[in-house]
Design goal:
The structure holds two protein chains of two kinds. Chain A is mainly α. Chain A has helices at residues 10-17, 28-49, 60-81, 91-106, 129-147, 154-172, 177-193, 198-217, 223-233, 241-255, 267-270, 283-315, 319-343, 361-379; strands spanning 111-113, 116-122, 125-127. The longest helix of chain A is centred in the last third of the chain and has 33 residues, at 283-315. By secondary structure, chain B is an alpha+beta fold. Classes of the chains: A mainly alpha, B alpha+beta. At the A-B interface, helix 4, helix 5, helix 7, helix 10 and helix 11 of A face helix 1, helix 2, helix 3 and helix 4 of B.
Chain lengths: 382, 649
């Protein structure tokens, strides 16, 4: 009854005839590396925030982060539990709801912080709808592309770009360039894997370059964003705040050496030389306190996680699952590369958090939700 | 967007969905390779930063967090020959504020200003004083009254982050006594920073600016202490890593005695006051715009006293001087009280220079001590009539008498004769002058000493060639020699040179370098260095030259015809015989400079004194009485009030 699809891997093939028990269908490697990264992140947030917030040994940020991790695990479980294919009827509502939230956030209902109107202030917590929009967009694009059973033509590519363009436009209005870049990369990845014509993809790259130039020209970017770009291009210019940040960030990582200065013993960290250290620059704590050994271990955990997502994409039972995983993979890889790269001076500074590690509830929840979907795809590929 | 058909269950059938995938696999594989390369890039960069760049970045992290804060050592003291403290150190209470608190607590500046009885603006101005390290609390008030400090301690809880700190500042227990010798200290400036770079000064450090404070800076300063402190990114100190205590500076003992110095300063002040009440020769009252008294020991060059008027109060520099006050002190149109006129002022020596001319005349043999000249009140040079001061005629005078009465005619003639014999004796006067140290610095260990000028044909020519607009005449004529003979013309000497020349004559031709510092001790009193007498120059003065001149100089003081006779009337010259010479030097466009130079006791001279009063009129009337008071102080003779009816030379 069941034919063997050409692209299904040998392990999936082996399981076609007899489904393994439910506990063997859970990707424990993915789960394990996710939890290990999140726990390491907790420790790093604690280290970054324990001094200088009133008294030594402050744990406020770490405790809140722990709550986010806990809620994230629950959300991941929820996202993994229900067959992802059953999400399809809900997708229009999810997408519509997301667009509505993105509209509200740039209305007076939202609040501004660090130059971008991207947050809802809910009591003591801040909700960042663009983080959730990432996961929703991945799912919606995957569903649309999966629906095109004969492959994508340029018309489909245009539709995909239209779908993605809606949240992207709203987020540009905040403006949050980093998140827009994540969306762009995710969209491109889904199109790539979904088999969009090479010419269409080339056209997208071309348009992206032109619009990037336009964005800079038309003054959509705030001065601080341009400064960050300038600091990346010319790190020696110590006069700029952004260049100072980058310099301190590199000093923190480099001074960690091979073995690191020891947990809680980083001088750059304890004396708060690195700005935004518990959020965007969290990797500097790893580099300084845990050294090459610690930071390479963390990157390896990320690499393992990426490998598991990629394998899940490859072995997915259907195109929908493959595309979801491809989108999630793009989202993670881009964020990891951009975030870690900027702390080491090989990428421009943008406000993109390090997945699962940076302090912040919305990003944490969206990462866990995305990984929940991957677990979901993996669980149901047999 | 998502259309209805997508939702159809049939569409998500595994078979259907997975068909029609042409290059899904290849592209997924490609993206996997991209992911791997991105991670490899991160690993490579991580390795580069943490292994290859680690030494540089670790050093940068270290430099980030560690600051060195220096603490100046208490400066050494300056004492007189008897151990009387002229400059010491005093503890002074200062109010300091935590810099953090100062920026955060917005009401504090107002409240604190009100409490200290000052205003917010000046309080914050002090707080931002760049001389105080930003890693130390800001100083907002110094020299705070003990009572205020006590009240502050009671109300401490109202002023969080404010504390009392004890500072050490320069203290002058004898007031401005000896100000020009002592000098003053102030914040180091850029030029001094460059000059002193090898001795590790930092901006804001105190440095001796003049006088002994400057010339003995290395001894007085001591060695600053240093603390290495860890700071956070806002520069807030976190903890002290290392502390080296400062080493206090050494004490410097001067050759001057506080008592004679005080007598000299008072005599100068009184003399100037007296001059100012007398009518001037040219217009109005004599201004007596400045003056100086210098006394040295002819036997060893010890400086006994050095006074310069107008003086300043070095205490006004302690703890910082305001820019406005400092501007007043250095205003080029003002009296320039910081200038030490004893070493930095140059004056035509007038008749006091006749000592030199007399020696030149006798040594060259152009005249003998018994050569008599009939002083008819004027000397004719090429048809030009040169007259004595006030047109007096002294009749037939020999060399000693000519010095006693200060006959210009006698010395005009001598100058003329020396010029006439110029084949062999062209610069006889200049040679003597230079032999006695005139026209060159005395190598006094004080900054600001100038060399003055003894003109001669060669220097005249050179001046003319360099600046023909200022010096239109390049040739030397008999008239120049005649002018030089009585200490006029281009001749310029400092009061210190003048006293050294007389001290040198008193010591039969041995001129000493002024010895201002006798010894240097460490703070516990252990002697580190003693300075001995040092010769500056010698000029052989045989007795047959020395004695007649000394006779003439004694006559000037003790003979009833002597120019300084009136000034020394009542002084017991038998027990303390004094040889001296008055001078009244003409200055273009100003009242005459009054001078006196002399020494005593004759036979065994212990002190030589020079007195110079700018725009002071007659030397006999204005300068000689001042010198008498100094001699009185040294000899212990009563200082009778002197009534001077009229002045001569």
């Amino acid at each position: 009854m069941v034919t063997t699809p050409y692209m299904v891997g040998p392990r999936a093939l082996a399981r076609v005839t007899e489904s393994p028990p439910w506990w063997r269908r859970i990707d424990v490697v993915l789960l394990g590396s996710t939890l290990a990264i999140a726990l390491a992140g907790l420790l790093m947030v604690l280290s970054a925030t324990r001094s200088g917030y009133g008294h030594e040994g402050y744990t406020g940020f770490a405790v809140r982060q722990a709550i986010w991790v806990f809620l994230g695990i629950i959300l991941m479980t929820v996202c993994a539990a229900v067959d992802y294919r059953k999400l399809l009827p809900a997708l229009p509502w999810l997408f519509g709801g997301t667009i509505a939230l993105l509209l509200f956030v740039i209305s007076p209902l939202g609040s501004e912080s660090k130059g971008a109107q991207a947050w809802f202030q809910l009591g003591g917590f801040q909700l960042q709808p663009s983080e959730f929009a990432k996961v929703v967009l991945i799912t919606v694009l995957a569903a649309f592309c999966a629906r095109q059973t004969r492959g994508l033509d340029s018309r489909h590519v245009a539709v995909v770009c239209g779908i993605a363009g809606l949240p992207v436009t709203l987020i540009l209005l905040q403006p949050d360039l980093g998140t827009v870049l994540v969306f762009a990369v995710v969209t491109f990845m889904v199109l790539l894997v979904a088999g969009a014509p090479a010419r269409s993809l080339a056209a997208i790259v071309g348009i992206a370059i032109v619009s990037a130039a336009l964005v800079i020209q038309l003054g959509v970017l705030k001065q601080y964003q341009l400064d960050r770009l300038g600091a990346f291009l010319d790190p020696a210019s110590n006069t700029q705040r952004a260049a100072y940040n980058l310099n301190q960030s590199k000093i923190a990582i480099g001074s960690g050496g091979v073995a690191g200065k020891g947990l809680f013993l980083g001088t750059q960290t304890n004396l708060r030389y690195v700005p935004e250290q518990h959020t965007d620059f969290i990797f500097t704590v790893v580099g300084e306190e845990l050294g090459l050994l610690g930071s390479a271990t963390l990157l390896t955990l990320f690499a393992v996680l990426m490998w598991r997502i990629w394998m899940t994409a490859r072995d997915a039972a259907d195109r929908f699952g493959t595309f979801i995983c491809a989108g999630v993979l793009a989202m993670f890889v881009f964020q990891i590369f951009e975030n870690v790269g900027m702390t080491m001076g090989i990428m421009p500074i943008t406000g993109i958090p390090l997945p699962l590690v940076s302090y912040g509830g919305s990003a944490m929840l969206s990462c866990f939700a995305a990984l929940g979907l991957v677990l979901n795809v993996r669980y149901r590929n047999a | 967007m998502v259309n209805k058909r997508m939702v159809n269950k049939r569409m998500v059938n595994k078979r259907m969905v997975n068909s029609g995938m042409v290059n899904n696999g290849t592209r997924l594989l490609t993206s996997g390779i991209v992911v791997v390369s991105l991670f490899l890039a991160l690993f490579a960069r991580l390795f580069y930063l943490q292994v290859i760049e680690e030494p540089i970045l670790a050093a940068a992290a270290q430099a980030n967090q560690v600051r060195t804060v220096y603490e100046e050592a208490p400066r050494g003291r300056i004492l007189d020959r008897n151990g009387v403290v002229l400059v010491g150190n005093r503890e002074s209470d200062a109010i300091t504020v935590d810099r953090d608190v100062l920026t955060k607590d917005k009401t504090l500046p107002d409240r604190l200003a009100a409490f200290l009885g000052t205003d917010k603006q000046s309080l914050l101005g002090r707080a931002n004083d760049s001389r105080v390290s930003i890693y130390k609390p800001a100083i907002v008030a110094t020299g705070v009254d003990k009572g205020v400090v006590a009240t502050f301690r009671e109300r401490q809880n109202e002023f969080q982050g404010v504390s009392v700190q004890t500072l050490v500042e320069r203290w002058y227990p004898n007031g401005p006594l000896g100000a020009h010798v002592l000098g003053y200290v102030g914040e180091i400036n850029d030029g001094e920073m460059r000059r002193e770079s090898q001795v590790s000064y930092r901006l804001g450090d105190e440095i001796g600016k003049s006088g002994v404070e400057a010339s003995y800076e290395k001894d007085l300063r001591g060695r600053p202490g240093a603390s290495r402190i860890e700071v956070d990114s806002s520069g807030r100190p976190v903890r002290v890593l290392e502390h080296t205590a400062p080493i206090p500076g050494n004490d410097v003992y001067l050759s001057i005695g506080a008592n004679v110095q005080r007598a000299a300063e008072e005599a100068l002040q009184e003399g100037i006051n007296a001059v100012r009440s007398r009518p001037g020769v040219n217009a109005g009252d004599l201004q007596a715009s400045g003056g100086s008294v210098v006394a040295v020991d002819p036997r060893n060059g010890n400086l006994i006293a050095m006074a310069s008027y107008p003086a300043f109060d070095p205490a006004s520099f302690a703890g910082g001087i305001s820019a406005a006050d400092y501007q007043k002190l250095v205003d080029p149109n003002g009296p320039l009280p910081l200038n030490n006129r004893a070493i930095g002022g140059t004056y035509a020596p007038g008749s006091t220079f006749k000592l030199v001319t007399a020696i030149a005349g006798l040594k060259t043999g152009v005249i003998g001590s018994g050569t008599i000249v009939n002083d008819g009140g004027a000397y004719f040079l090429g048809g030009k009539r040169l007259q004595n001061a006030q047109n007096r005629a002294y009749g037939p005078v020999d060399m000693p008498e000519a010095l006693t009465v200060s006959s210009d005619v006698y010395f005009y003639g001598l100058g003329d004769k020396l010029w006439a014999a110029r084949k062999s004796k062209a610069d006889a006067i200049q040679q003597v002058a230079r032999g006695f140290g005139l026209g060159s610095t005395q190598q006094a260990p004080l900054s600001g000493e100038v060399s003055g000028r003894i003109p001669d044909p060669a220097s005249r020519k050179k001046l003319h060639e360099d600046r023909p607009d200022v010096y239109p005449e390049g040739n030397w004529y008999a008239g120049d020699n005649v002018n030089l003979a009585i200490g006029q013309g281009d001749t310029l000497v400092t009061p210190l040179q003048l006293v050294d020349a007389y001290a040198g004559f008193a010591a039969h031709g041995v001129v000493h370098v002024p010895r201002i510092v006798v010894k240097v001790t460490d703070p516990s009193g252990r002697v580190l260095r003693e300075t001995g007498p040092k010769q500056l120059s010698t000029y052989e003065v045989p007795n047959d030259v020395h004695d007649p001149i000394e006779k003439g100089l004694r006559g000037a003081v003790g003979d009833s015809r002597g120019t300084a006779y009136a000034a020394f009337k009542g002084f017991d010259l038998k027990s303390f015989p004094i040889a001296g010479k008055t001078g009244t030097a003409q200055v273009n466009g100003k009242d005459d400079t009054a001078l006196f130079a002399g020494y005593g006791p004759v036979g065994n001279p212990e002190i030589a004194v020079s007195v110079v009063i700018e725009q002071g009129g007659f030397g006999s009337q204005s300068a000689a009485p001042v010198a008498r008071k100094v001699f009185s102080a040294v000899s212990g003779q009563p200082d009778a009030a002197v009534k001077l009816e009229s002045g001569v030379d």
